[in-house]
Design brief:
CATH architecture of the largest domain in chain B: Orthogonal Bundle
Low-confidence stretches of chain B: none
Structural class of chain A: mainly alpha
Largest sheet of chain A: 2 strands, antiparallel
Pfam family, one (chain A): BPD_transp_1
Number of domains of chain A: 2
Function (chain A): Part of the binding-protein-dependent transport system for phosphate; probably responsible for the translocation of the substrate across the membrane.
CATH architecture of the largest domain in chain A: Orthogonal Bundle
CATH class of the largest domain in chain B: Mainly Alpha
Number of helices of chain A: 17
Order of helices and strands of chain A: HHHHHHHHEEHHHHHHHHH
Distance between the termini of chain B: 67 Å
Order of helices and strands of chain B: HHEHHHHEHHEHHHHHHHHHHH
Shape of chain B: extended
Number of domains of chain B: 2
Structural class of chain B: mainly alpha
Mean pLDDT of chain B: 82
CATH class of the largest domain in chain A: Mainly Alpha
CATH topology of the largest domain in chain A: MetI-like fold
GO molecular function (chain A): phosphate transmembrane transporter activity
Oligomer: heterodimer
Distance between the termini of chain A: 59 Å
Helix content of chain B: 55-70%
Helix content of chain A: over 70%
Radius of gyration of chain A: 31 Å
Subcellular location (chain A): Cell inner membrane; Cell membrane
CATH superfamily of the largest domain in chain B: MetI-like
Number of strands of chain B: 3
Keywords (chain A): Cell inner membrane, Cell membrane, Membrane, Phosphate transport, Transmembrane, Transmembrane helix, Transport
Number of helices of chain B: 19
Strand content of chain B: under 5%
Mean pLDDT of chain A: 83
Largest sheet of chain B: 3 strands, antiparallel
Strand order of the largest sheet of chain A: 1-2
Radius of gyration of chain B: 33 Å
CATH superfamily of the largest domain in chain A: MetI-like
């Protein structure tokens, strides 16, 4: 049964549990809710909760474990000899899954009857053709082993699905019944329900931890696998990035240094654009501008932060690039070869970062106490002297924090560099040349056709890990500085 | 002693305070310059904003217009029977059309020679369209019908001015130099006009060989299903997590750890969430690739920190007196939170949620990794399939178009950005209105 319907049925059972639980509790109090320990609705909620939570929890866990279990069993069916040269068990397994899906599709469409799908022993060409007819992408001839495995896979999935449906429904009904039986007038329904809700609240708060664990685990496992296929020393110290997707193995040079260089260079250009503009804008807004101008200019600048990065990417590629090319290109100064360059991406990213710098710096400059300014004015300093010699030094740690936050955003930014910076990894100082970044390479390595077992695809996880660690370090450091500074005046 | 008390001649102010001396002038000039830098910075920022908007509007608005050729056409019963009886049916329809077109143009006083291939290049397979129409509406035979036929993308661009005679180096299969003359003649005869391009709003993405027919409709639907997943998951989870952290959590290492985690997650680059989605949802859990469900799950994880942070702020803004009053009349802590604090914080929570959703709507990078690009989209058949069938999302579709070489796709990409920004503006306006409407000072 599809999960969607199963969920609806479980919810329906629980709703019935709610009504019955509430009614039973009221009946036990002779219809007078004052005789109950808790409000009637809590008795209903108790039954509802005891039905829904375990049932859906079981379903969730089952859905997670089932593919692992089945994969494990099926992969034992496939002899090592069957795994062809340059392939691996993962590829064969995905072939098996595709075939199993195809069989299911074919049965759904009525092209094959269920019996044939279960025990087709002869005529493999026929099966392949029939699966193609069913709209399944079958790349090559299905071998006997794969078909056997697919049949077993499909049978096991079906059994497992059936078992899951039964188990979930039993749990739902049992939970509802249990909650209903508890519905006596002396039962402390509210306390039970509140405990349950509390558990749910804690679970929700833990999602953040689970996400972090998920990120770290998914990065670490794949990174370890990558380093088992490709030497770590080359990844970190090789000065060349030249992946080969031909599958020859070992022919790729996957050095991260050119990518890191591109990332840092583009981020630097972006910061050179964003920091002066953002900082001066923040100073003007917080020190000079009247409330009216502030009320207009600040939100307008903040619009820049709300625009999706894909827009900046397109702006870089189609507006900034051609303008730069007409000035610095062959018809102009002759320094620039193509539209995609460090400068193109850097400028677009700089525009995006202006509000990050300006808003945060604005807050921090505003937090500098007026008494410090008054002291400076009392000594005869002009406004700009006060700002330069009193306000900015006092706000400096916070401003540095803001710039670091902007830098970590620049390093992690993807769409602008994918569209604006080019794909060539090179170590060069020329800002008019195309370079590429860590994020752009993650995208290109993972959107190709390569499978997840090749170092060319797995390198993306190692790149992601590096990126994650760098930005995390920058963020933690920046937040630390911003927080530490803010406490001084509070 | 008296000497020391006397001010030496040289130290006495030579000018009064009303007259600036050189140093004061210099200081005042510095002051003015500093101010000017500030104004210049703000103006530069606003200039960039304007340039961005101007680029989007000027490049994107043409995507909403489509050149059509409107030809009055009459089909008699005999013609119909003859065409249906022939071997090459659509070719005969095309012949009828060409006759009709040249008649119309001659009536307008325009003389120009053209053949079937030219019509093919300018208007596509006219014969097939005509035949399909008359087979559907046999009662229309014998009546005059003004057919609006979409012009090919090159004609479209020529009329919009983005494709000129100079751009066509040599005649190719898709366009010949003499086609320009034909189009000019048609324009002279008043047969060509620009209409609103509904197909762009409702259509689906096409292959690279049909840039004119590509529309954004299917990806809007993909985005919609994705946002549904994000809303259904991130709002309850985010609010529950904030309630726990803000109202119930004891100050211990566990809750500290959660808080630090949330602050960190808010700053993790979005592409890392894409890697997480790829590894966990697709590699590990075998959820269908390119499905809005997976996109929604990834974006949920990304949006949660934003929602939690804003929800906590609005929970914090509810004064303690409300909680105390609720507890005072005998409510439990849980009741005071759910019956009193939460409703009062609801507008703030909604505002934060809408802003979080708007961010998620514009996010592209994680979608690239879970495969929501790179295929021809179509509308899902049913509600459940809307979550599970491969689809695209608006920003991913824009990226996809931007990566294609044909200039018409570029125009479509800018047009898609206008659609995306319209959604974002709507969402943000709702958020602002909510904030204004429920703003309250305690």
């Amino acid at each position: 049964m599809p999960v969607f319907w199963l969920t609806l049925i479980v919810l329906a059972i629980s709703a019935v549990g709610f009504v019955l639980g509430r009614r039973r509790a009221l009946a036990s109090a002779d219809g007078d809710s004052r005789n109950l320990h808790s409000l009637p609705v809590y008795y209903g909620s108790n039954a509802f909760m005891k039905s829904v939570v375990p049932a859906l929890g079981l379903m969730f866990v089952w859905l997670l474990v089932q593919p692992l279990f089945i994969d494990n069993r099926i992969s034992q069916m496939i002899p090592d000899a069957e795994i062809s040269e340059g392939s691996n068990i993962g590829l064969v397994m995905s072939e098996v899954r595709r075939t199993a899906d195809g069989l299911q599709n074919a049965v759904d469409l009525g092209l094959i009857d269920d019996e044939t799908a279960k025990n087709a022993r002869t005529d493999f060409t026929d099966i392949t053709q029939r699966l193609r007819d069913a709209g399944q992408v079958v790349t090559n001839q299905i071998t006997q082993t794969v078909l056997r495995a697919a049949q077993a896979y499909r049978a096991m999935s079906q059994t497992s699905n059936l078992l899951m449906t039964i188990a979930v429904l039993i749990v739902a009904v049992a939970g509802a019944a249990w909650g209903m039986m508890e519905g006596k007038k002396a039962f402390r329904a509210r306390n039970t329900v509140e405990q349950g809700i509390m558990a749910l609240l804690i679970a929700a708060a833990s999602v953040a931890i689970l996400t972090t664990i998920g990120i770290v685990l998914s990065l670490i496992f794949n990174t370890i696998e990558f380093f088992s296929l490709y030497p770590a020393s080359e990844f970190f110290f090789l000065l060349e990035w030249a992946p080969s997707f031909s599958g020859r193995g070992g022919a790729s040079s996957l050095g991260i240094i050119p990518l890191l260089w591109g990332t840092l260079y583009i981020s630097l250009v972006a910061l050179l654009v964003a920091v002066p503009i953002g900082l001066f804008a923040a100073i003007y807004l917080s020190e000079y501008a009247g409330p009216k101008m502030r009320g207009i200019a600040k939100p307008l600048l903040e619009i820049l932060a709300g625009i999706p990065t894909i827009v900046y990417g397109l702006f870089a590629l189609l507006t900034i690039g051609p303008i730069l090319l007409s000035v610095f290109g062959d018809n102009g100064l002759g320094w620039m070869q193509g539209q995609r360059a460090v400068l193109t991406a850097g400028l677009a990213m700089g525009i995006m970062l202006i509000p990050f710098v300006s808003s945060l710096s604005d807050d921090i400059i505003n937090a500098v106490p007026q008494a410090m300014r008054d002291g400076s004015y009392g000594l005869g300093a002009t406004k700009s002297e006060t700002i330069k010699q009193v306000v900015l030094p006092a706000a400096l740690p916070g401003i540095v924090g803001a710039i670091l936050l902007a830098a970590s955003r620049a390093i992690g930014e993807t769409m602008i560099v994918v569209l604006g910076a080019g794909a060539a990894a090179r170590l060069s100082l020329n800002p008019f040349e195309a370079m590429t970044t860590v994020t752009a390479k993650i995208v290109s390595q993972l959107t190709g056709d390569s499978d997840f077992a090749s170092p060319e695809a797995l390198v993306a996880f190692a790149l992601g890990m590096t990126l994650f660690i760098i930005t995390l370090g920058l963020n933690v450091f920046a937040l630390y500085i911003v927080r530490k500074y803010r406490e001084q005046y509070e | 002693m008296t000497d020391a008390a006397m001010t030496p001649e040289s130290a006495r102010p030579t000018k009064s305070l009303v007259h600036e001396d050189a140093r004061t002038k210099k200081r005042n000039a510095t002051e003015r310059r500093f101010r000017a830098y500030g104004i210049a910075a703000i103006c530069t920022g606003l200039f960039f904003l304007l340039a961005l908007l101007a680029a989007i509007l000027s490049a994107g608005l043409p995507a909403f217009r489509q050149a059509v050729v409107e030809v009055p056409f009459t089909m008699t019963q005999e013609q119909y029977d003859e065409a249906e009886g022939a071997m090459l049916k659509t070719a005969i329809y095309t012949d009828y059309f060409i006759t009709s077109l040249s008649d119309t143009m001659q009536a307008e006083g325009v003389q120009i020679e053209f053949d079937e291939d030219a019509v093919d290049r300018l208007l596509g397979k006219v014969g097939g369209d005509l035949r399909a129409y008359y087979r559907e509406n046999q009662d229309q035979i014998g009546e005059q019908i003004g057919f609006e036929l979409a012009a090919s993308s090159r004609v479209d661009r020529y009329l919009k001015g983005t494709f000129t005679r100079d751009d066509l180096q040599s005649g190719n299969r898709f366009f010949m130099p003499e086609d320009f003359d034909l189009i000019d003649a048609m324009q002279e005869a008043g047969l060509v006009k620009q209409v609103f391009n509904w197909n762009f709003i409702t259509g689906v993405d096409t292959g690279v060989d049909n840039p004119g027919g590509a529309g954004i409709g299917a990806s809007v639907l993909g985005s919609f299903f994705m946002m549904l997943v994000v809303l259904v998951l991130s709002l309850p989870i985010g609010v529950a997590a904030s309630i726990y952290l803000e109202e119930f959590a004891p100050k211990n290492r566990f809750t500290d750890f959660i808080e630090v985690n949330i602050a960190n997650l808010a700053a993790v680059p979005s592409i890392v969430f894409g890697i997480l989605g790829l590894a966990v949802f697709i590699q590990f859990a075998h959820l269908p690739q390119s499905a809005p469900l997976v996109g929604g799950l990834v974006l949920t994880l990304m949006t949660l920190p934003t929602i939690i942070i804003s929800t906590r702020a609005s929970l914090k803004a509810v004064p303690p007196s409300i909680r105390d009053a609720a507890l005072g009349v005998g409510a439990s802590k849980m009741q005071s939170v759910f019956h009193h604090v939460l409703p009062l914080a609801a507008p703030g929570i909604l505002t934060g949620t809408i802003i979080g959703l708007a961010q998620a709507l514009g996010e592209t990078a994680p979608l690239l990794l879970i495969g929501m690009v790179g295929f021809v989209a179509r509308y899902p058949d049913s509600f459940v399939e809307g979550f599970l069938e491969p689809n695209s999302a608006v920003p991913a579709q824009i990226y996809n178009w931007a990566a294609r070489s044909d200039a018409v796709f570029t125009e479509k990409a800018w047009g898609g950005i206008i659609v995306l920004l319209l959604f974002l503006i709507t969402m943000n306006t709702i958020a602002v209105i909510l904030r204004r409407r429920f703003e309250r000072r305690w």
